Amino acid sequence: MAVRDAASLLVGLLVLFHAWGVWADVEVNMEDRVEAYLGEEARINCMFTSAEGVGALRIHWFFVTRSGEKKQIYYLESTMKYADRGTQFTDRVNGTISPGTAVLTISDVHIEDEVEFICHIKSLTEGREGRTKLTVFDAPAFPSIEGIQTGISVNEVNPSKIGTCEVKNGFPKPNITWYRNNTPLRPAQDEVEITLSVTVESSGLFSVRSELRMKVTKEDKDDQFYCEVTYFVPGGTRMTETNRINITVYYPSTAVSVWVESPKGKIKEGDSIMLQCRGNGNTPSSFLSFKHGEEELPSEQDTLVLHNATRLDSGVYLCISTDTDTFEEIAGNTTLFVHYLDPAVVIPEDTIVPQGQDLKATCNALSSVDTHTAWFKDGEEISKGNTLIVKDATFDTAGTYECVVTVPEIEGMETRGTLYVNVQGQPEIIKPDNTEMVQQVETTVSLHCKVRGFPAPRVEWTTADGKVLDETSREVTDEGVQSTVDVKVTSDITVFCNATNDFGTDALTFDIKATTHTTAATTTAETTTTITTTTTSPASTTTISSTTVKPKTVNPPKKKVKKESSGGVIIAVIIICILLLAILGSVLYFLYKKGKICGRSGKQDLTKEKSNKDNIVVEMKSDNTEEAVLLGVNGEKQPPNDQ
Ligand SMILES: *[C@@H]1O[C@H](CO)[C@@H](O)[C@H](O)[C@H]1NC(C)=O
Ligand SMILES: *[C@@H]1O[C@H](CO)[C@@H](O)[C@H](O)[C@H]1NC(C)=O
Ligand SMILES: *[C@@H]1O[C@H](CO)[C@@H](O)[C@H](O)[C@H]1NC(C)=O
Ligand SMILES: *[C@@H]1O[C@H](CO)[C@@H](O)[C@H](O)[C@H]1NC(C)=O
Ligand SMILES: *[C@@H]1O[C@H](CO)[C@@H](O)[C@H](O)[C@H]1NC(C)=O
Ligand SMILES: *[C@@H]1O[C@H](CO)[C@@H](O)[C@H](O)[C@H]1NC(C)=O
Predict the structure, then answer these.
(1) N or C: which end of the chain has fewer CB within 10 A?
(2) Which ligand is closest in space to the CA of residue 240?
(3) The CATH number of domain 144-249 is 3.40.30.10
(4) Minimum-distance ligand to the CA of 98?
């Protein structure tokens, strides 16, 4: 009671003071806004001044509902305090008071907590209130960006989609700004379109999505795009950026180039030519085609291959890039030249040059480039240039000539021609080393006669006694003829090789000395062979075999062996001779003159044995006589040779 009285007294005094206008009883002061992160604690301060002590004050905390009415959430005085039941704050608020400041703390701030708060302080005499707003923040998740994967054509009429940026769960609503190469993009009529869509999640947080559409040009092909996200935080703003994306821009070619990829350097017939084409655009809707003159050529994308080129492939090649969207065509061209070298033409191809005259021939090959011509004979270069001149032809001039035409500038270009030359003239027998020889009786000797001359000479083999021998072989060569004859040696023999053509005759004489090793044997051999030559050949062969065996076995011991082996025969002959002499002794006595026959044959054998060993070569040399005989014979025997 006493307190009541005292209080009423005090109030009366205050009213009095107030009426006097000395001071206001209570003053309240609050910040405009209070900021807090979602889920964290918010502290709402209410500063006041009061003439009375804290104990005399009563504090009411209200919030303003969406419909605008005040709703108390907390009450506090010196002796008691409580949170009002049935509000969104009931379980999360606490109030404290200290001199000059009343504090309302709200824990686990919700988005709905973003309301206006009223702090109402009452003294004994009057009440004052302050107001503030709570702002709630939540930083969004890291933003994402997605670029368009397909390429964008510069031919598109409307802005094309570039990409989308998205930022989730921010509060308050974050902003998205598109950047191209560090420059922010602003929407522009028909050029840049930015479409924003904002979603309020069930949590009350904002998710923002922004799509960029733009008209692209070729210059944008290397551009980098990204999004910047700005959002409020207590006391300011923050910013994050997405990673960069680039786009594929399809642009048509404005120029096309075509070139010969291979071979490098000059092209020759037979080469495979590879042409390559490239446009400076990248539109997938465009394709390349090749043309040579009016002819369209099958190609594989940007490559054209011409196999086995000919001179007809020379000319201008067009490569055309056609855009299937716009049907625009752009062409590039290149000119190629296929070099050629025609087969060599040798004039004349076959020629007959009279001995002593000049050989002349030309070799030409039509070509698109400078050529080099050289003549070869027997693998050796004999002349340069396309004209071949050989003065004063001899038999050595005859033969096969080859002209080789090459192109120094281009490797592998070559053509060849052939010239056959015959030199007209009298036969000329090439003298062999040995025209005189000693041969065992009954051996067979091959005699060769190599004759130069044109027309190819006829070769006739004869023996000194006029017998004609058959050629065993005859071979016509560039120079003339090579003829061979096989001669069986039965006795000393002279063989003539006579070569004849329209221009004359040449002859060669072979002298063969027949040899055997015993006097007795030789006599028998000689007599038999002379007989066999006139008779049949089988008979002679049998006799040869019997006689030839003996000399072969006898050969090494020579004289001594001959006497021993042939001793029996000699004795027999002597006995027969003695018997004959005895029988015919009387007759011989009467006829002295006829006894000479036996003596002569014996003497001849002895001389032959000696000459075999020492004098053969010397005996037969008599060239002058041979030639004389040849000349004489020629005139007589020409008609039979025609056979
Ligand atoms: C309110 O705050 C005071 C002082 O900090 C504390 O002692 C008390 O337990 C709190 N009450 C509630 C309900 O949180
Ligand atoms: C977002 O954009 C709006 C409108 O331009 C602006 O008022 C606001 O301040 C921006 N927010 C941020 C966080 O920059
Ligand atoms: C983007 O740019 C990078 C590097 O500049 C490049 O490697 C990549 O291929 C580009 N991507 C596209 C789609 O153009
Ligand atoms: C190349 O062409 C020539 C002339 O047309 C022909 O003779 C030759 O056989 C061809 N070669 C190839 C490999 O096709
Ligand atoms: C080839 O290209 C040149 C320019 O590079 C041009 O002047 C010429 O007319 C073209 N020729 C043809 C046949 O298209
Ligand atoms: C071959 O020549 C020789 C030597 O000149 C001559 O003796 C012989 O009669 C000629 N034979 C023929 C068939 O012409």
Answers:
(1) N
(2) 2
(3) no
(4) 1
Model pLDDT for residues 222-277, shown as the tens digit of each residue: 999 999 999 999 999 999 999 999 999 999 999 999 999 999 999 999 999 999 99
Ligand 5 atom index nearest CA of 333: 1
- For residue 509, the ligand 6 atom closest to its alpha carbon is 4
- To the nearest 10°, report the CA torsion of 162, 168, 171, 175: -10
Q: Is 462 in the pocket of ligand 6 (CB under 6 A)?
A: yes
Taking the centre of ligand 6 as the mean of its atom positions, its distance from the CA of residue 397, in whole angstroms, is: 29
Atom of ligand 4 nearest to the CA of 307: 14
Task: Break the chain into its structural domains and give their ranges.
Answer: 24-136, 144-249, 252-339, 345-425, 436-515, 523-560+572-642
Asked whether the CA dihedral 343, 344, 347, 350 is positive or negative, the reply is negative
> Which ligand lies nearest to the CA atom of residue 495 in the structure?
6
The pLDDT > 90 percentage for the chain reads 65
**Which residue, 362, 365, 366, is CA-closest to 401?**
362
Residue closest via CA to ligand 6's atom 4 equals 630
- Superfamily of domain 436-515, CATH level 4: Immunoglobulins (2.60.40.10)
CA dihedral 173, 178, 183, 189 (to 10 degrees): -110
What is the phi/psi pair of residue 86, to 5°? 80, 20
Mean pLDDT of the chain: 81
308 lines ligand 4 (CB under 6 A): yes
- Distances, alpha carbon 374 to alpha carbons 368, 408, 443, in Å: 18, 12, 52
* Three-state DSSP string of 149-160: CCCEECCCCCCE
Cα gap 356→392, rounded to integer Å: 4
Measured CA to CA in angstroms, residue 168 lies from 179, 196, 253, 552 at distances of 19, 13, 42, 126
Select from 94, 97, 104, 105 the residue to mutate for testing ligand 1; criterion: most ligand atoms less than 8 Å from CB.
Answer: 94
Given the DSSP bridges, would you call strands 350-354 and 414-430 parallel, antiparallel or unpaired?
parallel
Look at domain 252-339 and name its CATH class.
Answer: mainly beta
- 586-629: pLDDT as tens digits: 655 555 555 454 444 433 333 333 334 333 333 333 333 333 33
Mutate to test the pocket of ligand 3, among 218, 246, 247, 248 (most ligand atoms within 8 A of CB): 246
Residue 4 has what pLDDT? 57
| Contact between 29 and 130 (Cβ < 8 Å) | yes
Residues in the chain: 643
Q: Which CATH class is domain 24-136?
A: mainly beta
User: Cβ atoms within 10 A of the Cβ of 510, count?
Assistant: 22
Q: What is the pTM of this model?
A: 0.58
The low-confidence residues of the chain, meaning pLDDT below 70, are: 1-24, 517-579, 581-583, 585-643
Contacting residues for 317 by C-beta, under 8 A, at least 6 apart: 258, 275, 290, 291, 292, 304, 333, 334, 335, 336
> Which ligand has the shortest distance to the CA of 461?
6
Ligand 2: centre distance to CA 174 (Å): 8
What separation in Å is there between the alpha carbon of 54 and the centre of ligand 1? 18
CA of 316 to the centre of ligand 5 (A): 9
Q: 248 in ligand 3 pocket by Cβ < 6 Å? A: yes
